[in-house]
Description:
The protein is mainly alpha-helical. The protein has 19 helices and four strands. The chain has helices at 16-30, 41-50, 63-76, 81-88, 109-116, 118-129, 132-138, 146-162, 170-178, 199-216, 219-224, 254-278, 316-320, 326-340, 351-361, 367-377, 382-399, 409-425, 432-436, and strands at residues 57-58, 61-62, 184-187, 194-197. The longest helix is centred in the middle third of the chain and has 25 residues, at 254-278. Pfam families: DUF6817 (PF20680).
Amino acid sequence: MPSSSTSISLTNKPNHEHLQSLIESARPFLRNNIISLDKNLPNLLTILNSAGANECWHRLGTFSHHLFHVYRILKLWNVPNPICLFGFFHSVYSNSYHDLAIFNPETDRETVRQHVGNVAENLIYLFCVVPRHTLIHDDLVFKYTDYELREDLRDSEQSLNSGNVKQDEKWRKKVQEVAPETGILTTHIRTGEPVVIPRRVLAVFLLMTIADFGDQYYGYQDDLYDNTNGRLEFTGNTNFDVLWPGNGKPGLWMNLVSKMAAVYTLLVREEQILMQQKRPDPFEQPGRVKQTDPLERPDLLENGWFEEVELVIPPVFEGCTKVLDPNEQIKARDIYWEVVYNDEKFDKEKSEEMLVKCIEMNPFVGEPHVLLSQFYMSRGRFEEGEREGELGLGLLLEWGCCWDKRVSWEGWVAWCRVLLSKAKERSWPKTSWGIISLGLVK
């Protein structure tokens, strides 16, 4: 099986060692010590901003912030560096969604290539010239129902665990139908010329899109696209006068992204089968494709370089194996919002029951756990507060972005760590000034 991280959300009990590992991985981002991740990273950020990325608007702020956040998410998922750099520059030539061409694809490709390498630049360019919405949504994710994805995830896991994978299995036939081994034929959005996207590259596009959507989607897009059923099918296109940024309510994007993650897992499993058939090696570590650094081998661009890039399974949605029901998503979000925006008539003691219900319906986000942790802490229920705080922090760190985007990811992480520090001390303020005095993360 492909490499993946143990998800903290797999059980109701936190994995303390895993949580500490997540904190260590996130610390360079939390301390803005990005040079420790990649000595070229500060220079890359300067290059993007010099080209105007920090002056361009994006859904939650600036284009520069969004690009860096996508890089952060991919890095926290332990994705290979060329794919992280692809995420960092993923729309700099503009794409089929919007015009954010801070670099000219006709004249600046070599400049970008010198900064990010051959593999990353090739991915960036391809991503910017294909009809992204058609490729990712219409021709791939929307070809599956939620039921089909759950069934195929189960069947593929059973098949791989048995060690007896057959060519004619239903899940494999479906993958080969929507994403043939020979690749996807599409068209260049500007020239109309045919473009072949290898299936492995398509999987990388899907992976990056999961990170991309996770960072930028919230309630504002639901209003724009009339996303009332929670499926984010982009059916509405007339609400051009929705005032930005909206009310900040968490968005109903997680059903769609969980489907993307499920399709990605199926693509990775099929690719893994083919790679093992092509290159049998009894000494190779199970679940990992032997990797050559494509950045050091520009000739791989013409010789199947994409076969050498490891496809990593992110920890979200329990290792990309669960599809969130859209109705459960809506109910969970609405319960959460009711707790958050309670008025003077709201019985605060109902918060526990409501947040527990919210978590049952959508166990894949951290913020409800964080709120429940504070509820317990303020009532002296420190063990329960610590448990919920650890679960919430783990999910926030696994995502690398937040679901409730009224506060930054870093802010959510810091507040959650304050809760955990106080939970370990078995103390919590009993005054308003006491709450304001909090802040130190130990």
